[in-house]
Amino acid sequence: MTFAARPLRLSTADAGFDAALAQRLHWSAEVNAQVEDTVTTVLAEVQRRGDAAVLEFTARWDHLEATSVAGLELTQAELKAAFDGLPAAQRAALEAAAARVRTYHEAQKKASGESWSYRDDDGTLLGQKVTPLDRVGIYVPGGKAAYPSSVLMNALPAHVAGVGEIIMVVPTPRGEKNALVLAAAHLAGVTRAFTVGGAQAVAALAYGTQTIPAVDKITGPGRDYVAAAKRRVFGLVGIDMIAGPSEILVLADGSTPPDWVAMDLFSQAEHDELAQSILLCPDAGYIAQVQAAIDRLLPEMPRAEIIAASLNGRGALIQTRSMEEACEISNRIAPEHLEVASADPHRWEPLLKHAGAIFLGAFTSESLGDYCAGPNHVLPTSTTARFSSPLGVYDFQKRSSIIEVSEAGADKLGRIAFELACGEGLQAHARAAEMRLKR
Amino acid sequence: MTFAARPLRLSTADAGFDAALAQRLHWSAEVNAQVEDTVTTVLAEVQRRGDAAVLEFTARWDHLEATSVAGLELTQAELKAAFDGLPAAQRAALEAAAARVRTYHEAQKKASGESWSYRDDDGTLLGQKVTPLDRVGIYVPGGKAAYPSSVLMNALPAHVAGVGEIIMVVPTPRGEKNALVLAAAHLAGVTRAFTVGGAQAVAALAYGTQTIPAVDKITGPGRDYVAAAKRRVFGLVGIDMIAGPSEILVLADGSTPPDWVAMDLFSQAEHDELAQSILLCPDAGYIAQVQAAIDRLLPEMPRAEIIAASLNGRGALIQTRSMEEACEISNRIAPEHLEVASADPHRWEPLLKHAGAIFLGAFTSESLGDYCAGPNHVLPTSTTARFSSPLGVYDFQKRSSIIEVSEAGADKLGRIAFELACGEGLQAHARAAEMRLKR
Question: Is residue B382 part of a domain?
Answer without folding.
Answer: no
